[in-house]
Amino acid sequence: MKSFDYSALPGSYLTPDIVAMLTTIHEHRGKQELFIEAHADALTMMVEVAKIQSIDASNRLEGIHTTYSRLKNLAEHKSEPRNRSEQEIAGYRDVLGLIHESYDDIPLRPGVILQLHRQLQSFAPVSDGGTYKRVNNAIAEKDGRGEEIIRFRPVSAHLTEDALDRLCISFNDGLGKAEYDALLLMPMFILDFLCIHPFRDGNGRMSRLLSLLLLYQSGYTVGKYISLEMLIESSKDTYYEALYDSSEGWHDNGNNYAPFIRYYLAVLIKAYREFGGRVEYLSQRGLTKSDRIKALIDRTFGSITKAEILATYPDISGSTVERTLGEMIKTGYLVKVGAGPSTAYRKVNPVS
Question: How far is it, in rounded angstroms, from Cα 347 to Cα 223?
């Protein structure tokens, strides 16, 4: 029988690369509140955009989709769902909204997970939302010939309730002891939840909603502003590979959580970097394009290329970048380094 160890096992995954990823995320979280306080009004729009992207991406991962106009109307409560796909989308919208607004009041317990799943399925005319699976299920995919291949066999239906009970108890105990970073425990919990696969339908979407809940409760609220679900969808092949690699041997306690931990942390790092970039853009909206280029050069250590400037500011044309760089060279602010494709630009050190 699978056992859940959140007291000692996490320590075996504190490898140098994972520790470095955890440190990077902590640094980003330290800046997060400063960004939010300084740009509260502008970030409101980011929250609304991220909600729509999250609803869309998490459902698309399960083959559920609609047109963008219908998606937007559903996300903004301007329309009622018209078909099964839109019912699924509306359910996700409601649970996501609840987590955004009330995450501090949602304890991680099996009964609460059942309630969230019931709400996820609440628009379906006939639904088993809020109940554990009644028959065994399997995680499968189709090969190139269209034949189904079983990738993983989750916990049997009759053992599901006990497994989820033990998982939640062990996770909450480990979190309460605070011996290991919560960011290390979260991906382990999500993987265990998916390996249990407690519901007939909606397990993947529930796992992403629970991930947001746990992150918010530990102070990592970047998912409000940058859609983590969209980042997962855009890297879904890597996502599924990490899940598969970390689930091998799971039933016999022989699995390796490291691949999924690394994937999970990498998504968070990317989200925080995107968040920082968008906040920076918002803070510079009142500047001219030339001033924005100068601001980038000022905070760049060493030299910078035209390509790097264009990658940072895709809304600025190449001709504007060239003109600005040329003017800065004429005034003695910059010096050109190298020639041809390797040309770069560096600030001239003032003479003391």
Answer: 37
pLDDT at 86 exceeding the cut of 80: yes
Number of other CB atoms surrounding residue 33 within 10 Å? 11
Strands 334-337, 344-347: pairing is: antiparallel
- Prediction pTM value: 0.81
Of 258, 134, 115, the residue nearest 197 (C-alpha): 134
What pLDDT score does 351 carry?
A: 40
The total of structural domains in the chain comes to: 2
Please list the alpha-helical segments (H only) found in 284-343: 289-298, 306-312, 318-330
Average pLDDT over residues 298-313: 80
CB 127 within 8 A of CB 87: no
Decide: 255 and 246 in contact? Cβ < 8 Å.
Answer: yes
**Could you please report the per-residue DSSP string of 289-302?**
HHHHHHHHHHT-SS
Is 162 inside any structural domain?
Answer: yes
Contact 196, 155 (CB under 8 A): yes
Cα separations in angstroms, 20 against 23, 31, 225 = 5, 17, 24
- Domain with 304, as residue range(s), is 286-347
Whole-angstrom distance, CA of residue 214 vs CA of residue 189: 10
d(CA 301, CA 252): 51
**CATH code of the domain containing 210:** 1.10.3290.10
Q: What is the pLDDT of residues 124-179, one digit of tens each?
A: 888 899 999 999 998 887 766 777 788 899 999 999 999 999 999 999 999 999 99
Is 2 within a domain?
no
Identify whether 3 is part of a domain.
Answer: no
Q: Residue 7: name the closest of 221, 191, 169, 131 by CA.
A: 169
| Continuous segment of H or E residues that includes residue 335 | strand 334-337
Instruction: Give the integer Cα–Cα distance in Å for 22 and 183.
Output: 7
Q: Rounded to 10 degrees, what is the CA torsion of 217, 4, 130, 89?
A: 60
